[in-house]
Design goal:
Elements (H helix, E strand, L loop, with lengths): L1 H15 L6 H16 L2 H4 L4 H8 L7 H11 L4 E7 L5 E4 L1 H10 L2 E2 L6 E2 L5 E6 L2 H4 L1
Antiparallel strand pairs: 1-2, 1-5, 3-4
């Protein structure tokens, strides 16, 4: 599978980085890369905290999961995204740039109505392997 090869190359590049030379970061990256080989592309495109915890073999309620997510983001192995579910239960995805812009602005535009929503807590975060690694 092409994802496995590209993810492996990214992991090796990240491991060589000065910022990621500590043992814990190396273990997180290696564990994620191994688990990603067995995961479906669909699973890797919608990772929740619980899903990442399962891939890493840690408990989802473990406070260290956030540290693991940050390691994976810094290594460009996953990227933050979000979903918005409107009052009609329609689901809208926000890519990394859209999610970041909404958080920075403290608001986002409802894709269906065009109205500004001033509550970014309505955006449900998730993470995904970047398209550059999964194509």
């Amino acid at each position: 599978m092409e994802l496995e090869i590209q993810l492996g190359e990214t992991m090796q590049s990240a491991l060589a980085s000065d910022a990621l030379e500590n043992f814990n970061a190396n273990m997180v990256l290696r564990t994620f890369a191994e688990a990603a080989k067995k995961a479906s592309a669909e699973d890797l495109n919608f990772l929740t905290l619980d899903g990442i915890a399962i891939l890493l073999g840690v408990r989802g309620c473990d406070s260290r999961i956030i540290e693991c997510v940050n390691i994976l983001i810094r290594a460009n192995v996953i990227e933050p995204r979000a979903q918005y579910v409107d009052v009609r239960d329609d689901v809208y995805d926000f890519d990394q740039e859209g999610y970041k812009a909404a958080l920075e602005a403290g608001a986002f535009i409802d894709p269906a109505t065009g109205l500004e929503i001033l509550d970014t807590s309505l955006l449900a975060p998730y993470w995904a392997v970047p398209e550059s690694l999964s194509s």
